[in-house]
Amino acid sequence: MAQAKLKTDTKPDSYKNYIGGRWVKPASGGMMENLNPADTRDVVGLFPASTAEDVDAAVNAAVEAFPKWKATPAPKRAEILYKLGQILIERKERFAQDMTREMGKVLKETRGDVQEAIDMTFYTAGEGRRLHGYTTPSELPDKMAMCVRQPIGVSALITPWNFPMAIPSWKMMPALICGNTLVIKPAEDTPLSTINLVKAAEEAGVPPGVINIVMGVGEQAGAPLTAHPGVRLVSFTGSTDTGRIVATKAAQTDKICSLEMGGKNVIMVMEDADLDLAAEGAVWGAFGTSGQRCTAASRIVVHKRVYKKFVEKLTERTKPLRIGNGLNKNVEVGPVINQDAVEKILYYIGVGKDKDGATLHLGGNRLDKGEYRNGYFIEPTIFTDVAPRMRIAQEEIFGPVLSVIPCRDLDEAIEIGNSVKYGLSASIYTRDVNRAFTAMEAMNTGIFYVNSSTIGAEVHLPFGGTKATGNGHREGAMASSLDIFSEWKAIYVDYSGKLQKAQIDEFKIAGS
Ligand code: UN1
After folding, report:
1. Ligand 1 centroid – CA 425 distance (Å)
2. Could you give the number of structural domains in the chain?
3. Percent of the chain beyond pLDDT 70?
4. Is residue 489 exposed (0-12), middle (13-18) or buried (19+ Cβ within 10 Å)?
5. Whose CA is nearest to atom 8 of ligand 1?
6. Domain match, 330 and 405 both
7. Hey, how many other C-beta atoms are within 10 angstroms of the C-beta on 5?
8. Which DSSP string corresponds to 420-473?
9. CA of 113 to the centre of ligand 1 (A)
10. Active site residue 260
11. Does ligand 1 have an atom closer than 6 angstroms to the CB of 298?
12. pTM value?
């Protein structure tokens, strides 16, 4: 059984920022410790605590590299991505191990995370020979009209810790294929996975300055990046509160800004559902990644006729889940990311019990004895008899906490499902095609599943959500991510040899 390698006796590895094609120390010399959340005695490494000075150097490098990268034909940019995809395939196992060590989710899932980056890289590389614009008739004779996508400039990518290679790839690959240069600021809890991705990109032949990585905390490194006048676009994934700060900052210098933020996703279980399948999907959606996905299922709305039976099945499946270090083969639920997360999750469990008055049906505790004593482990937790307006049913907890809410019928399930401020993902379990389609249409979310959980989006479909989940953009699916990372240019070519005035000149149809 693989065990986290403890490095208590040796000095931890020290990492650098990547700026203008060189690995460099942060200007202030400050470093941050990155700890394994399953065992905090294991120091994954020391990473730069960057400040505005480093950000400035990185943005300048990206500004300088932009003209050449922009002038590189897109199919040639794509060739580098194909190579990068190949390197990621070769390193998949090592990158997955590193990722589990730095963020805790189990190996099966970190392999999936790297796989998602591989999928995104190849999928985007194919776009190098498309990047379609279109031609369209002009309203005037002897005149042609068309539009093309053009690169935007320097993109700032601010990425979260829960998908530390997949989400950077969702932003980085389309940014690159469109001809942008970029500065990425990964979450301070998971810099290593992004370094792994950037090193692989360097090896694949991405020219100096095209990709830059600056590590550090939000206020020190993220804030100057979103404010920097050299940056034209900010793409952010994280909490709604931080996203609003990012958007406000970005607006002050007219930056393009794409935000992917919180979720409070629902599974609706109808009385005709396959209850075993629904319970399996609920457990995977709620406790996979220890509930730390934006798409995690944190609410299950169940028809009252099958409520009791469903809760039994859910409990049966949750109880035996093996919690522990994600590097161990048999573990199914890893730790949560850090001490702040532990406190926030325990706070919400307290709210559920003492303020909301829901029934704490299962779990509810931090595990801190024996094998758990050096990590951030929380039991998979189920609340039952939850009312839709309770805080635990409204606010994003981002941990292994599930609220089960009874409902009367499909209409009420939809109403409850839509009653939160977020709109990322939703799902229904039913055997009735009419109900499935009714819910599909009625749910105000960016992603909808029928007879499967709220997680598991594929890279070639749009990823993102409505309401407080985002600001109208979608990642993934080529057209939508190209819309973030390129700007349209409309082009008119008049070959009539005379001044023609749109909307003003009258065109006479011959013979009329
Ligand atoms: C996230 O929830 O933060 O759909 C990203 C999924 C993954 C991506 C999730 N493919 O569950």
Report:
1. 10
2. 2
3. 98
4. exposed
5. 457
6. yes
7. 12
8. SSEESEEEEE-S-HHHHHHHHHH--SSEEEESS-S----TTSEE--EETTBSS-
9. 9
10. yes
11. no
12. 0.96
